[in-house]
Design goal:
The protein is of the alpha/beta class. It has 13 helices and 16 strands. Helix 12 crosses helix 13.
Length: 388
Amino acid sequence: MTGYGIRRLVRAVLGVLTAFLLVFCTGAEYAQAAGQNTAELTILQTGDLHGMIWAYDYTEDTETNYGLTKAATVIQNERARDPDLLLVDTGDFIMGNFQPAFWDEEEIPIIEAMNLLDYDVLLAGGQELDAGNEVVEKIRTQTEAAFLIPGGETGSEEESLSSAKTGYQIVEVKGIRAAMFGWDLTSSPETEEMDSFLDRLNSEADVTIGLVHVGEGQTGAGWGEYASQYADQIDVLFLGHVPEDFAIPEDYEIPLVTAGEKGSAVGKCVLTLEKKNGEWEVTGTAVSKLSAADAAPDEELLAAMEEVHRESLARSDAMLARTGREEASEEAVVSGEESDGYYIVKAGDTLSEIGLRYGCTVEDLVKWNGIEDADRILIGSRLNITGT
């Protein structure tokens, strides 16, 4: 058993002990044995990992100050303080560099890495859904975490890409039932429908937590005003796919948490709860962002993913031998460049997004560039966007 798997065993043992107390203790005896009337629930967040497992830039052939191996050290340090913390990801954990290019193979490396870190909940972001039903199902079957499809199980009749349409998960820790739901703010249900869904969650859980993968264009007052309608029903929102300079909308009533892209920082929320009349009530919320820039990479995760790193180096060397390392520089990969009718693919790009940006279809891009697999494009590649 890895060090990361010990926490699940501890939870199981505590569950058995709790059941024993319920059976053999009554009333005040149980309250005294089970503990206190106050508690803290810690939730950590990663988001927009883009498959960045090792802290390594394969286009520049150099180490970086971001990556899941560095974020893992931050997570483990926090677990040393609170072994029962919850760990979530707010989407776009595949695609973006040479490592997630392996999602077309039998095992997805980023999912293996996240399993080792013992995530509780993963939210499907745009890149997971854009990858298609086969990849969504592969993620669902390989992850040991709950895999949430935004908007699932809220009463909507819209079909999900996944046959396992799951919109929320209830996790119990420290005797606290935390309901976590995936929320698509760009196509949200009617207010009455959302009210009914949240009322149901609040009746089943002590804490209600929203996981949202919002687009950069949706980080203004529009979605903020909409979400604020439910401030009395949602305890905290974890946001993914937001820019680093994201500003919380004015008069926003729901606490917001964000993480750094590619494992550069871990989002953290600590909820303080008090038991009143036998029910937990949130009495305080503390939100922060923990930088991973100065963290040493986690040795256990490095060892487990070493072969993936070696294969990533081999693939990047092969591609850069064809295109040239200068052409696929970090600046081009991060910002994207267009010149003379060509576009250089950056981390996180999809053909559908590129086509929408330049007024062409996925089919056009596939034809003009001789692409064999529309769901797999390499960062640093030059795409013809005009057909000329």
